[in-house]
Amino acid sequence: MQARPIHRGIPPLSPLGRRAALGAALSLALLGGCTSVGADLPPMPEETAGPYRLGAGDQVRVTVFNDPRLTGDFRVGDTGSLALPLVGLVPVQGRTTEQAARQIEEALRSRDLFNDPSVALEILTYRPVFVLGMVERGGQTPYQPGMTVLSAVATVGGFNYRAVTSYVGLTRIGEDGQAHEYRAGRSALLQPGDVVNVFERRF
Questions:
Q1: Which residues are CB-neighbours of 32 under 8 A, at least 6 positions away?
Q2: Measured between alpha carbons, how far is 11 from 117 in angstroms, rounded to an integer?
Q3: Fewest 10 Å CB contacts: which of 44, 88, 133, 134?
Q4: The pTM is what?
Q5: In terms of C-beta density within 10 A (0-12 exposed, 13-18 middle, 19 or more buried), how is residue 119 classed?
Q6: Which part of the chain has CATH 3.30.1950.10?
């Protein structure tokens, strides 16, 4: 009589085992889904240290030495310019404080107000950062040098229970003047005007 081959495969699962395996697979699927929101965004590019550049909403102090009429506190307008008395609009968007001061000096010379003006410019208040999505109190918060994603979220009450907490979406105006959205980690450094979007988990 011919011997039957012996199969040494994996034994079939019991009904209880099948239910457990199905539950584990479902849990993994849900876990993968909750972390995939926004994961396809391009990662935040590495930043190189550099001087701060002015933008709409920054509050600055302009000091024109030897002329108190032109010295005062001003806000960078929506068009990226400072409206200065006797001078008019001076574009400062994207310039450093040093470059903006030289720009004002040039405007003073071109209007024959000074032969050799001397101007200093300092930032009083930075334009805010905006934090939206799954946080306790979404909205704008004042920017502070060295602010990270996590510290910005903390200022609006922290993550809520539905939040993806390992990364966020971060929208920033690039040098081309266009808004670009990235995936950023909790320790990513922010810039004034950034918009942080905290994603919602899918379960």
A1: none
A2: 90
A3: 88
A4: 0.69
A5: buried
A6: 59-125
Our measurement of the distance from residue 54's CA atom to the centroid of its chain's CA atoms, rounded to an integer in Å, reads 15
Cα 122 to Cα 144: distance, rounded to the nearest angstrom: 15
pLDDT tens string 13-53: 454 444 444 444 434 444 444 446 888 999 998 876 678 88
149 touches 190 (CB < 8 A): yes
Summarize pLDDT for 59-95 with one digit per residue, the tens.
Answer: 999 999 988 888 999 999 999 999 999 899 999 998 9
Distance (Å) of CA 16 to CA 12, 25, 26: 11, 14, 15
What's the chain's length in residues?
203
Q: What kind of architecture, by CATH, is found in domain 35-44+127-198?
A: Roll (3.10)
Cα–Cα distance measured from residue 137 to residue 186, given in angstroms and rounded to the nearest whole number = 18
Note the CATH number of domain 59-125.
3.30.1950.10
User: 3-state class of 115 per DSSP?
Assistant: coil
